[in-house]
Design brief:
The protein is of the alpha+beta class and 295 residues long. The protein has helices at residues 18-57, 76-82, 86-89, 94-97, 100-105, 110-114, 155-176, 196-202, 206-209, 221-236, 278-294; strands at residues 61-65, 71-74, 119-126, 132-141, 147-153, 181-186, 191-194, 238-246, 252-264, 267-276.
Length: 295
């Protein structure tokens, strides 16, 4: 590999001796080695600078440690996560930032790490102020024998999950408080969600309803009629219907249904409610019979 030229000039004609040629080659090789070493050092320094820059800018906490658990290096995110100064952390060991339960029941698996197997674990860590933070720790061994852990704070994720669960619980309570039945199904009539009232009215269990089709709650001519009304929901966006709702024991109750078209994860679905109109139907029947008796 040519990296430059080394030249010697004489003021007059000269034939180089073997010793002069050998000396020149030695000098040239020494200069070449020095240049290559300088370039290598510069490249290494540039690589280390890029590495440290990436480490310091990482949102996750990063900790380097040895096979005895001694902390060797940390980034700024680790300082922020645990509340220690840099000088404090590099004088500590993993046993001082992990909870006692973690140490006894979920120790660092050096045997796996030394085989080149990465580990991913949820760990409880102690902050300087004594509070506990739940984290996700991804650990591996480096080429120089040190170990690296990338630590992600799960606080926001856990809180987001709790918020989702709270919202779902509220949604379930609202749906279950409805006086009539509530149903949410796909275009094929397969139930996605329903309220407790649907189970009470029909007599079917939650497990049974999850395997049923909406049309299975109707009989006779009502099946074709309800199927047509469902098709109108998906073609026009909204539709209603009156039909006898059949329970598991075969009892029929007149119901008024209304459903609308909704987009659920990019998929067309139907959301609807139904109310028992037995009272109004009986009242209407009695009224008609009164009119006939008067006539």
């Amino acid at each position: 590999k040519l990296i430059g030229k080394f030249m010697i000039y004489y003021n007059e004609g000269h034939v180089f001796t073997d010793s002069e040629i050998q000396f020149t080659r030695t000098v040239a090789n020494t200069i070449s080695f020095s240049i290559e070493r300088k370039r290598s050092n510069e490249a290494l320094q540039a690589s280390e600078n890029r590495y440290h820059s990436l480490v310091e800018q990482a949102a996750d906490a990063i900790v380097l440690f040895d096979n005895k658990g001694n902390i060797l290096e940390v980034n700024n995110s680790a300082l922020y996560l645990l509340g220690y100064t840099y000088e404090e952390l590099i004088q500590m060991s993993l046993s001082e930032i992990l909870t006692s339960e973690e140490i006894s029941t979920n120790p660092v698996q050096y045997d796996l790490l030394e085989k080149g197997i990465s580990t991913l674990k949820k760990r409880s860590m102690k902050r300087k102020d004594g509070t506990i933070v739940l984290t996700e720790v991804n650990s591996k061994i480096l080429h120089d024998g040190r170990f690296l852990s990338m630590i992600r704070d799960l606080t926001d994720r856990i809180e987001a999950q709790k918020q989702i669960e709270r919202e779902k619980e509220l949604s379930d309570n609202i749906i279950d408080s409805l006086p009539g039945v509530f149903y949410f199904s796909d275009e094929n009539g397969k139930f996605i969600r329903w309220n407790k009232q649907l189970e009470i009215v029909t007599g079917y269990s939650s497990k049974e309803i999850s395997k049923m089709n909406l049309l299975q709650f109707f009989g006779g001519d009502d099946i074709k009629y309800i199927e047509e009304r469902i098709n109108r929901v998906f073609s026009e966006g909204v539709c209603d219907a009156e039909a006898d709702f059949i329970s598991k024991d075969g009892n029929k109750s007149p119901y008024y249904f209304k459903a609308i078209l909704v987009d659920f994860g990019g998929k067309a679905c139907m959301l609807g409610t139904g109310i028992d109109i037995s009272v109004s139907k009986n009242a209407e029947k009695e009224l008609n019979e009164s009119y006939r008796s008067i006539r």
